């Protein structure tokens, strides 16, 4: 069987006098080494990305985390300088990509900013600066220059029974990392909560009635996917769904050729 391909979202950033469409190494490495699929970065060209052509080539979609926030005007709130930075090119690419992947049954894994984009793509809203809300924990990274410290595993998450993640995890409480200041507010259409933090923050969701694996997590399984069992399980489950989709497609293509 050919190596399955996974479309990976990109951030638009400026450095070295160039504009880059880029994704952090950890997402690419976890896709290749743990999901066993080849990551293909999709430039954030918005409506100029022909999703039909993309889906003719790939077997899964990975929406990465990023420091930038989804522009609040996309869910009926006001954009402010304090709420930024924003990445409008990414928003205009990922939101249609997520909706189309769900419609067409392409396996989808959405991480951190990704789960927030999944929620907004399906009509939900985001809460911002959640650490300032009474009773809510500080879900931001510990202040450090060391990425291993920032992404350290230190927060419990309770997985709900009878969900997609509930089938992957037993026991039902796992420890995760946490690097975010926004979270799901009003839940998007068709989403069900898969996991919460002890303070009630939504930590994982899935798309009900979806034709394939369609899961978002607020934490970062990519960062420790090669060394942490709970992180690896998510990428392995995604990889299994991607391979299943690739096999189905191969069957359909050979049937059509007969
Ligand atoms: N901007 C959102 C999304 C958070 C996210 O995706 N974080 C990834 C890590 C970014 C970093 O290295 O700081 C939010 O803050 O909720």
Structure description:
With 258 residues, the protein is of the alpha/beta class. The chain has one domain (5-257): Class I glutamine amidotransferase (GATase) domain (Rossmann fold, 3-Layer(aba) Sandwich). The chain is 31% helix and 21% strand. It contains seven helices and 13 strands. Helix 3 (88-103) packs across helix 4 (113-121). The longest helix has 29 residues, at 229-257. It is globular. The model has no long low-confidence stretch (mean pLDDT 97). Bound molecules: ligand LF53FM6H. Ligand LF53FM6H is lined by residues 65-69, 112-113, 141, 179-182. The ligand N[C@@H](CCC(=O)NCCCC(=O)O)C(=O)O is lined by residues 65-69, 112-113, 141, 179-182.
Please tag this protein with its features:
258 residues; globular; alpha/beta
Our measurement of the CA-to-CA distance between the termini, rounded to an integer number of angstroms, reads 19 Å
What average pLDDT do the residues reach? 97
Order of helices and strands: EEEHEHEHEHEHEHEEEEEH
Q: Tell me the strand order in the biggest sheet.
A: 4-1-5-6-13-12-11-8-9
* Biggest β-sheet strands, sense, barrel: 9 strands, mixed
EC number: 3.5.1.94
Catalytic activity: 4-(gamma-L-glutamylamino)butanoate + H2O = 4-aminobutanoate + L-glutamate
Protein name: gamma-glutamyl-gamma-aminobutyrate hydrolase
GO molecular function, one term: gamma-glutamyl-gamma-aminobutyrate hydrolase activity
């Amino acid at each position: 069987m050919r190596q399955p391909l996974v479309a990976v979202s990109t951030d638009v950033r400026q450095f070295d006098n160039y504009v880059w469409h880029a994704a952090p190494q950890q997402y690419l490495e976890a896709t290749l080494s743990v999901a066993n699929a080849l990551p293909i970065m999709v430039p954030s060209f918005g409506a100029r990305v022909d999703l039909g052509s993309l889906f003719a080539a790939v077997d899964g979609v990975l929406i990465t985390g990023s420091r930038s926030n989804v522009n609040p005007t996309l869910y009926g709130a006001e954009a402010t300088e304090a709420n930024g930075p924003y990445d409008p090119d990414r928003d205009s690419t990922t939101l249609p990509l997520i909706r189309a992947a769900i419609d067409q049954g392409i396996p989808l894994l959405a991480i951190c900013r990704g789960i927030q984009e999944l929620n907004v793509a399906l009509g939900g809203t985001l809460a911002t600066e959640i650490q300032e809300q009474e009773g809510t924990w500080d879900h931001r990274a510990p202040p450090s220059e060391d990425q291993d410290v920032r992404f350290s595993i230190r927060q419990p998450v309770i997985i709900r029974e009878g969900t997609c993640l509930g089938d992957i995890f037993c026991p039902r409480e796992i420890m995760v990392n946490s690097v975010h200041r926004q979270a799901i507010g009003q839940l998007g259409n068709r989403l069900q909560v898969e996991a919460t933090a002890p303070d009630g923050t939504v930590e994982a969701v899935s798309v009900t009635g979806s034709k394939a694996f369609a899961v978002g997590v607020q934490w970062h399984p990519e960062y420790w996917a090669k060394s942490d069992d709970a992180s690896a399980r998510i990428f392995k489950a995604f990889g299994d769904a991607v391979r299943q989709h690739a096999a189905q497609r191969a069957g359909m293509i050979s049937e059509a050729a007969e």
